[in-house]
Predict the structure of Alpha/beta hydrolase.
Amino acid sequence: MRPFLMKLFKVVSAIIIVLLTVFLILIHNFFQPKSSEEISFDFKESSKEVYISNKDIDGKTIRILASQFEIDTLKPTVVLVHGSPGSGMDFKKYLQDTELSKKANLITYDRVGYNFGSNDELLPIRSEVQILEQLISELSASKTIIVGYSYGGPIALGVKSEYKEVILCAPAVIAEVEPMFWFLSFYKWRATKWLVPEMLQTASKEKLGHASDLRSMEQNWGANPSKIKTIHGDKDWIVPYENALELQQIFPKDQFELKTLKGASHDLIWSRFEEVKEELLKSIEA
C-alpha cells in the first residue's frame, strides 16, 4: 500500500474509532436510569415538583413518582405504566402538566428490571401484573385509571379487578404480530453485547422473550372487566397497529373503544402528547 493511502487509512480509522466511542458514550448516558436526585432537579428546572417514594413489594423496591404529596380521594387517580426500554420518567410531561394534575392524581413507577440502582431480574408479565395490583391496592378502583404504554400495555390489561378505565397506548399484547428486529443480534452476540447499554440489554432480553410470555396471557385478555380504550398510531412499525385491531375483535363494542392516531408512530405518548392528553381528560372527566 502506498504511503499516502496508508496514512489516509490510519486517519480514517482513527476518526471512525473516535466517532464510535463518542456515539457509545452518548448512547450509554442517554439510556442510563436517572437517580432520584437527578429527577428532582429536572422537575425543579421546570418549576414543577415531583414527589418520589419507594415501596417494597414482594421483595422488590419500587420507585414511585407522583404529581402530588398525598392522594386526593375526591379526584380520579391515573397510574402510568412505562414500556421497554423506559422508566417512570417517560411520563415526565404528563406529571408536569397543570391541567392533568389539577383534575387527577398522577402516579408512575419504574418497572422491575428498569429501576435505578437495582440489579433485579426482569419479571414475567403475570408477576408484573401482581406488582401493579399491589401498588394500587389502596386506591379506589372506581376512581382509578390505568394507562399502559407499549410493553406496559399487557401489564395494564392483565389486571383482574374492575377499574374506572384501562387505557392502552400502542400496546404490545398479541404475540402473533410481535416483530423481531435485526439489531437484537448486538445483544445476542458475545462479541458485541458489551456495546449495548445496560438498560438496552434489559430491553433486548424482554423483547426476545415477550412473544412467548404473551402466549401465556393473551387468551385471558377478554376477562378484563374494565372499560378498555386503545390509542394507537396507524404508522407504528415497532408495535404494529394490528394489536389494536385484534383487541377490537376480543372485546364487545360497549366495553372497547379504539382511538386511531393517523400518521402516528410508536412514540405517540411524546409526539402526539396533546391528543393522548385529550383522551386522558375524557376518561378523567367521565
Notes: Confidence is low (pLDDT under 50) at residues 20-28. Residues 56 and 62 are 6 Å apart (CA to CA). DSSP finds twelve helices and eight strands in the chain.
